[in-house]
Fold this protein.
Amino acid sequence: MLPVVSIVGRPNVGKSTIFNRLIGSRKAIVDDEYGVTRDRHYGESFWNGRRFNVIDTGGYLPDATDVVVEGIREQVHIAIAESDVILFVVDTEGGITSLDKAVAELLRKQDKPVLLVPNKADNDERTLNATEFYELGFEELYPISAVNGRGTGDLLDELVSRL
Ligand code: GDP
Ligand code: MG
């Protein structure tokens, strides 16, 4: 069994874009047997000679806030149970939201390694702004741009060192 990396976070922060960058041209497996809130995509990735499976969570959450919160909670609990490392994605464009804080609280209460990933850090300014996410209570953060690849090498170096 390959180690498992889950990507969690509120809708629209770029989880699926990160997932697609990590699996590249390899094909994702879609598992929707548990229904919409548990819909997950699985794919294989590698970096520095280490192979691992990546899970993209929460693809099709309905657009009602309480349902989103419940769906994310459920995804985070599953991710905690079955992952070796969790990527907690936030958005440097949108800033910190109450949903980010709710996810952070769930993730801080457990022992799996969590890498806080402020995404959409497409340029220097956004990368500097990413420091606001220290407020979420994690020691390190790894700003990236899933679109242009900025920062992804450093994130992946750290990720495989935790597998
Ligand atoms: P998800 O809901 O968390 O899976 O988010 P998606 O991957 O679907 O992305 C949501 C939106 O953010 C899309 O319009 C993406 O193109 C955009 N996005 C994702 N990553 C980046 C990034 O690194 N930079 C910018 N500028 N936009 C991004
Ligand atoms: Mg998605």
